Backbone:
């Protein structure tokens, strides 16, 4: 049994980036451009903490929301260690790189603070041991990425992209939350650690509740939105509006990896036939479509963005297979993808920084000026394309193997899986070669001398590519009998933590194949097809671009724009109807809406109205009659002052009613409130015209109908609400107010003791109302219209 | 406004404040409490505004210079009202933390905003009750007074 992790180490690990983010403004004032190294140091400490947790397994938590069995809990296993190391490790490199890339850029403080918070959120997602904690950090990554994608906030495109990323990923997160609530309702706890401690029992509980399919789908929507699976992938290509280091981080180690991480996390509990069909189909379709779109990209980062979508599809498909090979595909490809994709993004940043453009049509022959970068690109791009013996090849082989086995086992339509996988890989190779081609061939004349990048920028991609290269070479040495043991055992260990209970897990090996197997044949087809297609890629590009132009719904943004801008137009139209600058319109719609909705609710639930016989004494009857008369008088009042006075009579009548009903505290409140209202009216009355305008007959009739409806509705509501005889609650307060709170005034005791948090909410509303009034007045004074 | 109103206000406004304070203190056991007391204090102040005008209160009572309309919202007594309700919210929110801190120090878990009370004997007053909820009620009081007066004074200035 492995030791359990220490709660405080976990709290430190997740809390440190946030604390560091909060301290960033002060630090940045001291360090200026060297803030990057501060952030890198924080990431390095996080990496060390992740490493210190590596040997442990299990959960650690403190109670958070006891009654709902929500804990502030963490959970450590192989998968968490893996993705945590990825986030903090790539974090170190990205921060170092930022020192060069962001030099002299404006908004550095905001940049580093948000990046640190982004890393912290990701670590929170990774180590969350409770569904609620996971959800909170999950949405925090969306918020942080919103700020980062919209970093150049004065640019329209940045704002559009940031909003899009936020809408889609936060929206997906809400689906996931519903899935979590269903999961918790089936198992009785929100503790992920408890669920993972006995996945079989959790799964049995879920199946017994009949909730397996809904949960898999809902959690799947969350994961698909985050990891940009088709058709929710549309936000990711736009996210390149962010500074390049952000893209590298986002695409390789943080946000988009959160989605596949979630699949890995839930896999032991939920994997099954539903799971396989949903995620393998989703992943492979995404892989194919995004690979084709990547071939059509016109600039470096766009290509990389679509390529990320495609590779995430590969990982999702891998996790989709219920076999051990599937788990290994997912885990190993996360590792490989993070290495080559981060390296390539950093390369794209160097090219853009030094050459001043990212467009393919303006680039070429860069290896003469940037030899180191060209080498890095060769290793990383060939890995991305799945060319042996580079790292991406091996994980793709695993995908082919898993797809072939499933098809051979199930037959029928499942043969589509290996076919799609191979076709997708063909396009993967094509776009990888296109990226690499930037460094070779003729150098365009317009491209002047290209400077070499500083070492703070060259170093990180070099390290990443070096790692990718070593992993790739490991396959070659393994074929010769010397496997790269650390990588193999690590990937095997991580893959084991994503396996359902009872799965037979063999130790993980990868090697350059020396014999012919179905997967090898598929790889050969993919490589050959890719090489041939590369020769005619311009025609492919023209065909796809033509199709996209001819049929807009095929395009990535079409449905998003239709939906969002459609909603915008609809809201503008509604706005025009409702927002007429006349109080009368607002009141009409509000009252009509309330009566309509509430009335529908009563009708739908067929509420019975209890008809209590009134037991009013003579004094009460007199008082209420006076109030009713005063209300009639208020309607017919010839001037404002008379109306206000009549209304006050109603109010004070109600006060007397409270006194007679032995509720002195409520009566007191009523008196004071009535007085303030009256005084405020007096203050305002001066400014109003002294007469009422003439009212059209039809409008008066409409208002009369509406007011009768509202009155009737309120009456029914009161009868229904009081019909439930709240005696038990009342007697509870009567019995407990003195012993528990030491107060004899029930109303006040309820306000400040028993329901203190409600009161807190109410006073917040009062304060907000004051702020709102202030804002409106200030805006008007300045001549702005709200 | 009329002389009568001013004369009445001169007596009633201070009385209003005193009664408001009494309501606030006795609220736990007798009719009263932070909300009512706050509204009463606000209405007393509003009466002063009615009698003397916004500038009158600012100028004569507080001896400050009267600002122009926009400035009015940003400076002077309105600024104080804003700080008042902000402080009230702060008191209400942080006051509840005391129970957590107390629980932590004594090694138990006490939820946020748990209230308690003690009896104490004070000379002249005899046995009085000290309820921790009074702190929270003070927050309510401050928010109500600050927010209402902010609204009344800026709307009145219009």
Residues:
């Amino acid at each position: 049994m492995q030791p359990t992790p220490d709660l405080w180490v976990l709290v430190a690990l997740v809390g440190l980036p946030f604390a560091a983010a909060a301290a960033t403004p002060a630090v940045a004032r001291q360090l200026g451009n060297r803030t990057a190294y501060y952030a890198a140091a924080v990431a390095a400490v996080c990496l060390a903490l992740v490493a210190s947790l590596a040997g442990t397994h299990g959960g650690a938590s403190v109670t958070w929301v006891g009654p709902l069995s929500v804990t502030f809990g963490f959970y450590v296993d192989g998968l968490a260690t893996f993705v945590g190391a990825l986030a903090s490790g790539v974090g170190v490199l990205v921060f170092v790189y930022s020192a060069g890339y962001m030099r002299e850029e404006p908004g550095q403080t905001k940049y580093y603070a948000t990046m640190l918070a982004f890393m912290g959120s990701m670590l929170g997602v990774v180590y969350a041991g409770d569904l609620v904690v996971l959800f909170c950090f999950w949405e925090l990554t969306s918020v942080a990425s919103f700020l980062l994608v919209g970093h150049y906030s004065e640019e329209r495109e940045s704002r559009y992209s940031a909003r899009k990323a936020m809408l889609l990923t936060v929206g997906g997160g809400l689906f996931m939350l519903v899935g979590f609530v269903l999961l918790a309702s089936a198992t009785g706890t929100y503790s992920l650690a408890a669920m993972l401690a006995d996945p079989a029992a959790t799964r049995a509980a879920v199946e017994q509740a009949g909730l397996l399919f809904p949960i898999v789908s809902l959690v799947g929507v969350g994961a698909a939105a985050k990891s940009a699976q088709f058709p929710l992938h549309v936000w990711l290509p736009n996210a390149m509006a962010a500074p390049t280091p952000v893209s590298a981080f986002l695409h390789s180690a943080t946000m988009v990896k959160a989605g596949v991480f979630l699949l890995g996390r839930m896999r032991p509990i939920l994997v099954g036939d539903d799971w396989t069909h949903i995620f393998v189909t989703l992943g492979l379709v995404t892989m194919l479509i995004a690979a084709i779109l990547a071939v059509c990209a016109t600039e470096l980062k766009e290509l990389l963005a679509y390529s990320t979508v495609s590779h995430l599809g590969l990982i999702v498909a891998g996790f989709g297979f219920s076999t051990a090979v599937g788990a290994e595909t997912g885990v190993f490809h996360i590792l490989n993808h993070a290495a080559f994709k981060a390296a390539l993004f950093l390369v794209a940043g160097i090219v853009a920084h030094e050459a001043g453009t990212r467009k393919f049509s303006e680039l070429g022959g860069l290896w003469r000026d940037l030899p180191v970068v060209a080498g890095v690109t060769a290793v990383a791009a060939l890995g991305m394309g799945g060319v042996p013996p580079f790292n991406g090849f091996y994980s793709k082989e695993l995908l082919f193997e898993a797809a072939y086995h499933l098809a051979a086992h199930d037959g029928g339509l499942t043969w589509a899986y290996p076919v799609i996988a191979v076709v997708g890989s063909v396009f993967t190779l094509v776009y990888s070669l296109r990226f690499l081609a930037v460094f070779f061939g003729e150098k365009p004349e317009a491209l002047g001398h290209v400077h070499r990048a500083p070492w703070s920028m060259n170093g990180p991609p070099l390290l990443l590519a070096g790692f990718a290269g070593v992993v790739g070479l490991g396959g070659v040495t393994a074929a010769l009998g010397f496997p790269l043991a650390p990588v193999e055992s690590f990937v095997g260990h991580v893959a084991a933590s994503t396996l359902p209970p009872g799965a037979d897990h063999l130790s993980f090996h990868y090697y350059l194949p020396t014999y012919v197997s179905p997967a090898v044949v598929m790889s050969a087809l993919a490589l050959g097809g890719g090489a041939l297609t590369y020769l005619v890629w311009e025609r492919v590009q023209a065909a796809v671009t033509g199709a996209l132009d001819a049929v807009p719904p095929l395009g990535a943004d079409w449905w998003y724009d239709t939906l969002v801008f459609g909603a915008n137009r609809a809201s503008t139209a509604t706005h025009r109807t409702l927002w007429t600058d006349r109080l009368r319109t607002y009141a009409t719609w509000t009252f009509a809406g309330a009566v309509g909705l509430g009335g529908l609710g009563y009708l739908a639930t067929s509420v019975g109205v209890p008809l209590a016989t009134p037991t009013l004494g003579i004094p009460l009857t007199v008082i209420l009659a006076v109030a009713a008369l005063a209300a009639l008088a208020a309607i017919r009042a010839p001037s404002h002052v008379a109306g206000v006075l009549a209304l006050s009579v109603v109010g004070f009548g109600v006060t007397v009613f409270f006194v007679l009903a032995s509720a002195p505290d409520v009566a007191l409140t009523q008196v004071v409130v009535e007085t303030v209202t009256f005084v405020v009216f007096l203050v305002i009355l001066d400014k109003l015209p002294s007469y009422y305008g003439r009212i059209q007959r039809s409008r008066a009739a409409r208002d009369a109908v509406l007011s009768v409806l509202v009155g009737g509705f309120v009456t029914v509501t009161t009868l229904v609400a009081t019909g439930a005889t709240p005696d038990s609650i009342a007697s509870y307060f009567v019995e407990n107010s003195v012993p528990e709170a030491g107060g004899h005034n029930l109303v006040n005791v309820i306000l400040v003791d028993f329901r203190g948090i409600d009161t807190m909410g109410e006073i917040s509303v009062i304060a907000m109302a004051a702020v709102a009034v202030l804002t409106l007045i200030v805006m008007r004074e300045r001549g702005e219209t709200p | 406004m009329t002389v009568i109103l001013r004369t009445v206000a001169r007596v009633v406004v201070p009385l209003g404040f005193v009664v408001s304070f009494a309501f606030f203190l006795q609220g736990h056991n007798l009719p009263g409490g932070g909300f009512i007391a706050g509204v009463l204090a606000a209405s007393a102040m509003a009466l002063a505004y009615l009698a003397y005008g916004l500038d009158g209160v600012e100028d004569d009572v507080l001896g400050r210079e009267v600002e122009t309309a926009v400035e009015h919202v940003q400076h002077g007594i309105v600024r104080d009202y804003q700080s008042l309700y902000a402080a009230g919210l702060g008191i209400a929110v942080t006051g509840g933390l005391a129970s957590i801190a107390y629980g932590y120090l004594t090694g138990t878990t006490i939820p946020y905003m748990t209230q308690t009370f003690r009896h104490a004997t004070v000379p002249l007053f005899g046995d009085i009750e000290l309820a921790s909820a009074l702190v929270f009620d003070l927050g309510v009081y401050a928010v109500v007074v600050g927010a209402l007066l902010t609204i009344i004074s800026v709307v009145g200035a219009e």
